[in-house]
Amino acid sequence: MDKRKKFILIDGHALLYRAFYALPQLTTTYGQIINAAYGFTMILIRLLEEEKPEYITIAFDTPVPTFRHKEFKEYKAHRKKMPDELISQISIIKEIIKNYNIPFFSKEGYEADDIIGTLAKEAEKRSCNTIIVTGDKDAFQLISNHTKVMATIKGITEVKIYGEEDIREKFGVGPEKIIDILALKGDVSDNIPGVPGIGEKTALALIKELGSVENILNNPDKISIKSLREQIKKYEDQIKMSKKLATIVREVPIEYDFESFRVKLPNYEELWKIFNKLEFKNLLKKIAPQINHEKEKFKFNLIDTKEKLMKLTNIIIERKYFSFYLETSSDNSISANILGIALSFKNNENYYIPLFALNLLENSKCLSPELVLGQLRSSFEDKETIKIGHHLKFTFMLFRRYKIELEGNNFDTMIAAYLLNPSSENYNLRNIFWEYLKYLKNNEDKEGRQDTITSIENACENAQNILKLKDVLEEKMEEKKLISLFKNIEMPLVKVLGEMEINGIKVDIAFLKKVSQKIDFRLGELKKTIYNLSETEFNINSPKQLSVVLFEKLKLPVIKKTKTGYSTNADVLNIVAPQHKVVSFILEYRELDKLKNTYIDKLPLLVNSKTKRIHTSFHQTVTSTGRLSSSEPNLQNIPIRTKVGREIRKAFIAEEGFVLLSADYSQIELRILAHLSQDENLLNAFKNDEDIHAHTASGIFGLDQNIISKQMRRMAKIINFGIIYGMSSYGLAQNLGIGRGEAEKYISNYFYRYQGVKKYIEREKEEARKKGYVITLLNRRRYLEGIN
User: Fold this and answer.
1) What is the pLDDT of residues 269-282, one digit of tens each?
2) Rounded Cα distance, 102 and 105, in Å
3) What domain range includes position 216?
4) Residue 659 domain flag
5) 198 CB contacts (<8 Å, ≥6 apart)?
């Protein structure tokens, strides 16, 4: 076992450049570019964690010329000046290195490579195993039995460690001969001239044959090729200079104490401040466990007697302001049971009410759920009492089963977090505690609730942090003018959606079974027809097998290729459909098969056995635009345009004696567009109660409204709604089945008629580029990452 200590030597500038160009131009919210600093820090952390060195240090170049520039004025002359965006990050990176307690060096007149060469030599004397981390292949010359080079290959994560054998395998010579090769072939990156006409292949051949540059220069007659021999003689001085330029100095006069390179504990408190300022969220999470935050003692009062419960009820009535956290048996509001309730008040005052016997102590007891929830009902239903919770739709639905109505001026931390950052992937407590309180919550117990003191402390901790969140989130919503949207739209909607989910919708299962049987019969017919027309049997649902039949057997024109063969998506099949009648049957088969498996056969399985209804989940915090979504099943996506789709919709029925009422706003998007753009033509059309699509058609086709045909109106309708959603001329051409030039003309005519709309769209684009987001009438923000 090798007992040598490991020494990591980092070429600071090489890694700086690598991180800068490997990562996109990341910026903080206040405009500081941080990509190089972030990438460099990631590399540093990875080295410390994976390599676990005993010693580490970093070398940097200086901006002043080195001895090599004095030797050869054109040395590195063609290199571009360091970008200002990178220069601005150097001081940041050095501050980070400083707080990792890692020494770093630079020396006027020398390069980082020279300092690395000097320290690597010293490390060998001290019996260390050294790894030089760089992106510069010049460092290969420093490789020895106990010195290796870790070179970045791609990005900041793909690296390769080179040892002596790797160099011999790659070049056919040892590491000590690298400078001889560079002396002959030169180095484009450093502008080392070498010999004109000699490349790596020739240089290697010469070194393998004659051993060294000196031997070549002393024995030119041993070079058999005349032209090469003459070049060597002609450029003798240049070869000597090139070798000097390429050779890393190993005796740089720097003062250091090798023991100061020992890896030390970082200054985590300062790193926290730096990472927080630079908005390094992932790195903050990484060092969070190391921060010596004074963790509050989450003392709690256990409510296990009627007297204690009465006292707690009186506190709620008096304060009229509390947060709560429910422990439940599952996350399904229709079947979950409440296991315990944590309540928190200001000044870290916490209570826990178990609704089942605790195993904390012998003879532990709890109050009955009926007694506890009956006692708390008035507080949760009191409209004057502010209740702060997380995911209150779930609470509302769960309480309804316990005959409690969640009323009043409530605050849902999940909704507030969503409004502030609608593009987040997750609004669970762990994420938002970290995002807004910089508190790293332990992962939830995957096996369910554990009956321990720690579990109760965690529940109370959640309730207390939810209480703290309200103030933080409310302040941020006020800054972004989101309070009205939160209070007047989102919070009332929580209850509406809860009611909708509880009510569910009735489905005629018998009707769906009949539809399924009809579809089965038709699919069987289609399968026979497809096999007959294609003269072979195959798996119609297999894109690979289908592509072979269509494009190889039937010789249909290939429209688009994929990595595995030919594309058979709907767009492609619609293009080739006129070429062979089998394609239209394949399209029908696919559509029916999809409807059968997605809706017709699946919907009955989603009917609740107790309520005999489907209870979809409506999601208020999923889309970044504020649009609702639903799942299990997605009731917003039930097809309507096809005959079978309309049949599926007939399966959703009302209870006997009731009817389902369908209502829709008339041309709501276009009315909003008229209001926002204040386009006179659009406004007047609505004020005069005109047919807006006929009005648009009149402008596009240059005809009086009285002679606009149904076809023209249909096209104008597509254009009206297409323009709103940014449809391009290509998209319009596809939708209307016309040429792209004609589509461009229609768009031009549209904007000529509605010039206010054109100005509004351009104005919004410009605002979006400046701010990085757009806002709705009610100040909802839609952030547009990557718009610039």
Assistant:
1) 889 889 988 988 88
2) 10
3) 172-247
4) no
5) 184, 185, 186, 206, 228, 231
Q: Please choose, from the candidates 139, 137, 17, 135, the residue with its C-alpha nearest in 3D space to the C-alpha of residue 85.
A: 17
- Helices vs. strands in the chain: H and E counts, helices first: 33, 21
Q: Is the pLDDT of residue 449 over 50?
A: no
**CA 603 – CA 102 distance, rounded (Å):** 62
d(CA 193, CA 191): 6
Amino acid at 661: L
**Which of 433, 449, 452 lies closest to 441 in space, CA to CA?**
433
153 lies in the same domain as 9:
yes
Same domain? 144 vs 199:
no
Residue 322: strand pairing partners: 387
Cis omega (within 30 of 0) on the bond before 83?
no
Q: What is the rounded distance in angstroms from the CA atom of residue 276 to the CA atom of residue 273? A: 5
What φ, ψ does residue 327 adopt, rounded to 5°? -95, 125
- Among 395, 342, 339, which residue's Cα sits nearest to residue 369? 339
**CB-based contacts of 71, cutoff 8 Å, min separation 6:** 241, 244, 245
Residue 78: pLDDT above 80?
no
CA atoms 85, 86, 89, 90: torsion sign: negative
Kindly report the three-state secondary structure assignment for every residue of 473-515.
HHHHHHHCCCHHHHHHHHHHHHHHHHHHHHHCEEECHHHHHHH
**Residue 607 per-residue DSSP state:** B
Specify the long-range contacts of residues 553-558, CB closer than 8 Å, at least 24 apart. 554/580, 554/582, 556/580, 556/583
Place of tokens 């109505």: 405
Query: Which of 411, 402, 400, 427 lies closest to 339, judged by CA?
Result: 402
User: Can you name the residues that pair with 128 across neighbouring β-strands?
Assistant: 5
Give the domain CATH number at 362.
3.30.420.10
C-alpha distances (whole Å) from 165 to each of 4, 128, 178, 195 are 20, 19, 14, 28
* Residue/partner pairs of 486-494 with CB below 8 Å, 24 or more apart: 486/415, 486/416, 486/419, 489/778, 490/412, 490/415, 490/419, 490/620, 491/410, 491/411, 491/412, 491/415, 493/620, 494/392, 494/393, 494/396, 494/410, 494/412, 494/415, 494/620
Longest C-alpha distance within the chain, in Å? 111
Per the confidence metrics, is the pTM higher than 0.85?
A: no
Identity (one letter) of the amino acid at 457?
Answer: E
Tell me the per-residue pLDDT of 294-350, one tens digit each, with 9 for 90 and over.
455 568 899 999 999 999 999 999 999 999 999 999 988 888 999 999 999 998 899
Residues 159 and 209 in one domain: no
Residue 124: which CATH number? 3.40.50.1010
Q: How would residue 239 be classed by pLDDT, with cut points 50, 70 and 90? A: confident
Dihedral sign computed on CA atoms, order 713, 716, 720, 721: positive
HEC states along 173-187? Answer: CCHHHHHHHHHHHCE
